[in-house]
Amino acid sequence: GDSVTQMEGPVTLSEEAFLTINCTYTATGYPSLFWYVQYPGEGLQLLLKATKADDKGSNKGFEATYRKETTSFHLEKGSVQVSDSAVYFCALSPSGYSTLTFGKGTMLLVSP
Amino acid sequence: DADVTQTPRNRITKTGKRIMLECSQTKGHDRMYWYRQDPGLGLRLIYYSFDVKDINKGEISDGYSVSRQAQAKFSLSLESAIPNQTALYFCATSGPVPGQGLETQYFGPGTRLLVL
User: Fold this and answer.
1) Is residue A89 over pLDDT 60?
2) In this predicted structure, what is the pLDDT of residue A30?
């Protein structure tokens, strides 16, 4: 079945540091790929998405590129802020469906 | 006002008790979902419904049941709660992102359940 693997956290960074959170997936066909963010005490919110190979999703300074050859969708940000501290989830949706398979989540902690 | 609401937000119950978690949405979406979140395990799908007459089991449906009372309401029941059902439960709907031509899921704030 479909699966998503994320790097384990927590990831601890200083403000303005570069962020990478790795995500790889296993799926048949051509899934859509997503990053969701969960701030403390809240539900998940869509951060960005990509629906086909080589698509780049971007939002709030975060980016991720759909790499079919490496089945990856790594999340990056050039300069993190304290307010980016949250749990980040990589997810996929099989083509033509709206169910999501989530990774286990990666906690990001940014210190001033 | 929140588009996806869940009640209660916190609940403590005892082993063997029946409890119901409720979800309501004002987004007008047909598709609704129940997930549980456990530390280190991410989110796992319990049940989902693509319309009022459609109910589907997810990855971990054993010990749970659902009811889709209306387009806007989707309830999750634990018929006889057990301690390993202690978790954070999320309801979600799915629908289009305005102006972006894609579909995503919209999550409620979660219900924290403790089974003693």
Assistant:
1) yes
2) 86
- Which CA distances in Å does B108 have to B24, B32, B53? 9, 11, 22
B47 touching A (Cβ < 8 Å) = no
- Whether B87 and B53 have beta carbons less than 8 Å apart is answered as no
Give the length of chain A. 112
Strands A11-14 and A106-111: parallel
Integer Cα distance of A65 and B11 in angstroms: 40
> What is the per-residue pLDDT for A83?
96
Question: Measured between alpha carbons, how far is A6 from B19 in angstroms, rounded to an integer?
Answer: 33
State which amino acid sits at residue B16.
G
Please answer yes or no on whether B43 and A44 come within 8 Å at the CB atom: yes
- Under 8 Å between Cβ of B110 and B9: yes
- Dist CA B51 CA A100 (whole Å): 17
CB A64 within 8 A of CB A76: yes
Q: Is A38 helix (H, G, I), strand (E, B) or coil?
A: strand
Q: Which amino acid is at A38?
A: Q
Give the gap in angstroms from C-alpha A100 to the nearest C-alpha of chain B. Answer: 8
Contact A92, A4 (CB under 8 A): yes
